[in-house]
Design the sequence.
């Protein structure tokens, strides 16, 4: 595997550890989960776009964000479903669908089919896996 720093998908574990905070590394690279109601974006309502913290890919827009009451940022759709990877997740005795950034493989969270909007989707995303770009 190449260590080409121009492509985030090719970074080594050591490079990710150096670039990310310990919490971001644990969530984004090791499929961890931040505690509910602690992330910077769970109760964030400014207008803009949410990007992957690891590679900067645009993933979600503020217009698709809603309060699911779960303690994590929730969206009813990504900007483009082609930017999201979907994977079966049977960890912790549950059956879920993990969502990742397709550009760099970063773990974002999970998607559920109990969303309150017409999409029926609830993308439950860790704040630490996101950066925010306001529309200003």
Sequence:
């Amino acid at each position: 595997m190449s260590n080409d720093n121009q492509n985030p998908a090719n970074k080594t574990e050591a490079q990710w550890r150096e670039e990310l905070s310990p919490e971001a590394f644990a969530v984004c690279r090791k499929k961890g989960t931040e505690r509910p109601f602690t992330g910077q974006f769970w109760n964030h309502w400014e207008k803009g776009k949410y990007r992957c913290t690891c590679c900067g890919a645009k993933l979600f827009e503020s217009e698709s964000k809603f309060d699911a009451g779960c303690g994590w940022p929730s969206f009813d759709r990504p900007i483009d479903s082609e930017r999201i990877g979907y994977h079966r997740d049977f960890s912790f005795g549950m059956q879920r669908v993990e969502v990742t950034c397709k550009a760099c493989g970063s773990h974002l969270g999970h998607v559920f089919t109990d969303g309150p909007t017409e999409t029926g989707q609830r993308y439950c995303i860790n704040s630490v896996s996101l950066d925010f770009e306001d529309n200003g």
Notes: DSSP finds two helices and nine strands in the chain. The mean pLDDT is 91. Strands lie at 48-52, 58-61, 65-66, 74-75, 84-89, 96-101, 107-112, 122-125, 130-134.
